[in-house]
Q: What sequence folds into this?
């Protein structure tokens, strides 16, 4: 490794979600399977989301690596066959499907400002929508609200949903405070309802 070059460690989605859960984040109920025969033993209630998992795959949706609205084991077995044929397949993540507003929360460590946080409309069309706002960490309570209101889609959020987003942003601030070697963190989507904010997909890179 050349002098000054950073060593990056990218976690799998499961590792990233387990790490967030240990740090008091609300994460969707999930499990992983590497064999089709394991599907019948899963205790998570339908409907499911099935996602390919691999350290070599960053954008699952772009390779048709995410299947939703799965309502039976037979349907899951068919999707497992399709996912297992994708290049670099390692295993499949099974999650309880959650309905709500999808947002993205992202962290990137920059040379100029340190850790910068991004908030915006989440899901698979983030790059197309470009409805996002940025702030340099740390940020105070009133600045969190302003960051949220800088986006167009925030107009449709309910008061309780905004409170749940704010709580998650504060958890991220605390996480960065105690883990300054986090290079990047993407929670996309974070599903927001009036009752909860729940992580259903995460990417995490340490330096």
A:
């Amino acid at each position: 490794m050349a002098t000054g070059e950073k060593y990056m460690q990218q976690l799998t989605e499961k590792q990233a979600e387990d790490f967030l859960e240990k740090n008091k984040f609300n994460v969707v109920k999930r499990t992983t399977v590497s064999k089709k025969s394991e599907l019948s033993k899963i205790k998570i209630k339908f409907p499911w989301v099935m996602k390919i998992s691999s350290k070599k795959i960053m954008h699952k949706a772009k390779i048709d690596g995410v299947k939703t609205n799965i309502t039976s084991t037979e349907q899951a077995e068919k999707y497992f066959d399709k996912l297992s044929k994708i290049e670099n397949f390692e295993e499949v993540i099974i999650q309880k499907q959650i309905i709500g507003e999808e947002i993205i929360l992202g962290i990137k460590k920059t040379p100029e400002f340190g850790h910068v946080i991004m908030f915006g409309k989440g899901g698979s069309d983030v790059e197309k929508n470009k409805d996002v706002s940025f702030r340099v960490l740390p940020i105070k309570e009133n600045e969190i609200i302003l960051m949220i209101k800088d986006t167009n889609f925030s107009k449709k959020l309910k008061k309780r949903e905004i409170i749940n987003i704010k709580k998650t942003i504060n958890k991220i601030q605390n996480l960065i405070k105690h883990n300054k070697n986090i290079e990047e963190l993407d929670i996309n989507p974070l599903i927001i309802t009036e009752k909860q904010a729940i992580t259903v997909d995460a990417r995490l890179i340490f330096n």
